[in-house]
């Protein structure tokens, strides 16, 4: 992994994810792999990721309607994915198991799927159905992210 030191952030994240998948002997389809890259890119500089209380954000999302609700649920699902996959110690510090974040995140993605249409709903239904696999991929990433990847919260990994 130390050979990856340059390139766009998306290319770096994609390489890291592919290496994690190869290490695990697992496969994600193109849309799942791309979505993981998207999640990592969107949240790589989120200084408040670990301070957020996802259950409260999920409750807030329930009070929204339309695309605002879907976006809020997507954000909860994404953040739970990152916490469960990259920052499992946070779950233990909050006296809950990683499964708490997995269940909350999977449910949030399913909420997006249930509210959406066509390809968007199909993508989130697939993401909800394979949420454990996505978490396992990020857990494999957790041990091999190179220093050059710009994630504000990586200090918490070690």
How would you describe this structure to a colleague?
The protein has 158 residues and is an all-alpha fold. It has one domain (9-157). The chain is 68% helix and 0% strand. The chain contains eight helices and no strands. Helix 4 packs antiparallel against helix 6 (98-115). The radius of gyration is 15 Å and the shape is globular. The chain starts with 8 loop residues before the first helix and ends in a 16-residue tail after the last helix. Residues 1-6 and 146-158 have low confidence and may be disordered.
List keywords for this structure.
disordered C terminus; 158 residues; disordered N terminus
Break the fold down into its secondary structure elements and pairings.
Blueprint: H1 9-24, H2 30-43, H3 54-62, H4 66-86, H5 88-93, H6 98-115, H7 118-129, H8 131-142
Q: What is the compact description of this entry?
A:
The protein contains eight helices and no strands.
Rounded mean pLDDT score: 83
User: Total helix count?
Assistant: 8
Number of strands: 0
- Give the low-confidence spans: 1-6, 146-158
What structural class is derived from the secondary structure elements? mainly alpha
Question: What share of residues is helical?
Answer: 55-70%
User: What sequence of helices (H) and strands (E) makes up the elements?
Assistant: HHHHHHHH
Gap between N and C termini: 17 Å
Net shape: globular
Instruction: Tell me the domain tally.
Output: 1
Specify the biggest β-sheet.
none
Beta-strand level of the residues, as a percent range? under 5%
Q: Tell me the Rg in angstroms.
A: 15 Å
């Amino acid at each position: 992994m130390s050979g990856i030191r340059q390139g766009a952030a998306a290319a770096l994240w994609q390489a890291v994810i592919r290496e994690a998948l190869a290490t695990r002997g697992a496969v994600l389809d193109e849309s799942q792999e791309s979505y993981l890259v998207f999640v990592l890119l969107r949240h790589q500089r989120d200084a408040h990721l670990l301070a957020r209380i996802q259950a409260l954000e999920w409750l807030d999302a329930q009070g929204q309607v339309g695309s605002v609700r879907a976006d809020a649920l997507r954000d909860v699902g994404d953040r739970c994915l990152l916490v469960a996959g990259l920052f499992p110690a946070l779950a233990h510090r909050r006296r809950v198991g990683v499964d708490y974040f997995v269940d909350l995140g999977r449910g949030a993605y399913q909420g997006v799927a249930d509210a959406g249409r066509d390809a968007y709903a199909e993508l989130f239904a697939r993401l909800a159905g394979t949420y454990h696999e996505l978490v396992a991929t990020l857990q494999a990433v957790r041990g091999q992210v190179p220093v050059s990847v710009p994630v504000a919260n990586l200090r918490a990994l070690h």
